[in-house]
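Box 3.1 A note on notation
Throughout this textbook, protein chains are presented in two layers. The first layer is the amino acid sequence; the second is a token string describing backbone geometry. Keep the layers aligned when reading.
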Amino acid sequence: MDGVQKRVEEMVEELQLYRKLGLFSRIEIKQIIKKRSDFEYKLNRSGPPQKSVYMNYIKYEINLSSLLALRMSKEPSLRLPGNFIQDRIFNIFERAVRQISDPSLYTTYTKYISLTHKRTERIPLVWQSAVRANPRNAELWIQYAEHWINDGAVLRAREVFQEGLRFNQDSKELWLTFFEFEIMHAKNLLTSATEEAEKSTEPMLVTPVMEFAVARVILENASKNFPNDLPFRLEFVTRTRRHGNHTAKFQDEIYENIQRDFPENSEAIYRIAKRDMTEDRPFQIMRSALEKNDTEDLRLKYVDLLQDYVSDLKKPKIVKSQFGTFLAEMNEKNLWTEKLFLKVISFIRFFHSQKISKEKNAPKKDSKNIYAEILTEISRKSVEKFPKNSELWLAYVETENDKQKALARALKSLPNSAEISLKYVTRFLKKDWNTFKLKFQEAMVRVALGPDLQSFQVNVCRLVTRRVKDSSQRKIFYQMCYDMPKVSLEFHRMVIDREIEAKELDIRYFFEKATSDYGKVDADIWIQYIQWERQHGSQTKANDITLRAKRTLENPTEFHVKLRTSQASENDGMEWGDALASMPKKSKASRK
């Protein structure tokens, strides 16, 4: 190839100089020529060039450069007329970014330039090429702008952001990064102006930029592009808050805009209420919103606010007062929903778990039992109002002293519930195996009438494989599940993994059950079976299983690929094992 030959000829002068100065031997020079030629031939093959070839080529040259630098350090008097290898690395990078449409190459290229401190003037040119080649890649525009920010070129950074938004108005991160850049710039200007004013008798001149004029324009334009995106708008508050207390007024302005644009959004009202956690002011905001539009979402956020007060402010009196009023309203107006019951039950448990719920000098009943009584009352009311909600029944069970009786009541209401049945049979697993078998069999029959039998079996199996040490008991459990409609593949895998580890039961039986149920669609279970036979059985049986798999699977091609991969891994392991085994062992004398 003419191109390869030309590049080999171009390195002749460089290599002759290395040989003349004694930096590399004749054999090493030949090795360098061969290695570089191999890379060049790979890059000149027909078809699209591969990124990995370029990166390996660059790694090789970097290592060669390090070796050269090491040898030259031993001969301080030696000087080279140019940095040949460095120039070659830059040339390879340039060829790579021209021929491969991969934005990450530009990032790698600029990082390399920065690390070497060579040709740093090329960095903006590289980024310019990057955004021209990939104008719709917002991340590249951000990195280009960050280059100018780090260089202290504010105007250029702003121009890059503006140009990037022409192509990427749908990029939230680009809007947010531009916005935060202007916040940071305003902060830096204000800090500098303050320091100058302290040294001068003249009053400090505050410019519009210092008062976030540019950031305000970015926020307005971003809001127009994403008018209904509250999380995006709230992120502007987060980015502003990062830069200190002097942004507080601007944060208030952003909250006012959110309140204007999202007047009935419960999340927006909740965030605005949390803005000033002074005494009961947030609750006043929430109550005012509830008077205008009393919704489930807003009441859920009200409970979130109560929990925030517990977590952040540790003010039990305010929480108790507000929660008492909240409960009275819920009961009086009959506003309970399934979600609200669950949220309130969760809050009471959380509040009770916090030390602040136990006030000093409070009677024992107030510090402990009152919360249990409220929780029990609400839990009982929840299952009476919504008897078909399994989450509420499980919460109810936790509040009752006689859990067995509570579970029986729950199952009477929801006999097909996998969640309640799991809770029910688990209690017997801890106490009595024979009773567990009976209750589990009854539970499977009930749950089978619904859609969750397989998940129920898996969850119980997870407990049985962990807790039951008696292999005969585990086998009985497995058989009970096999006697029902087809168990899941996850169940089969769990059983096989547990019994391979235990080495007590007939593993082939479980593999046969799994391949009988899923042998047409799952190649992995066949491969695991084959691998086990090779390691613990016989190669002949492994070959028979391989033939069965090929005949049974609907997609044998996938099986062939996975089987070859697993065989290659096994062979690699054997080769290393053989190599280690063949190493000569040191005698006792030599060890001494």
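The radius of gyration is 36 Å. The longest helix spans residues 172-199.
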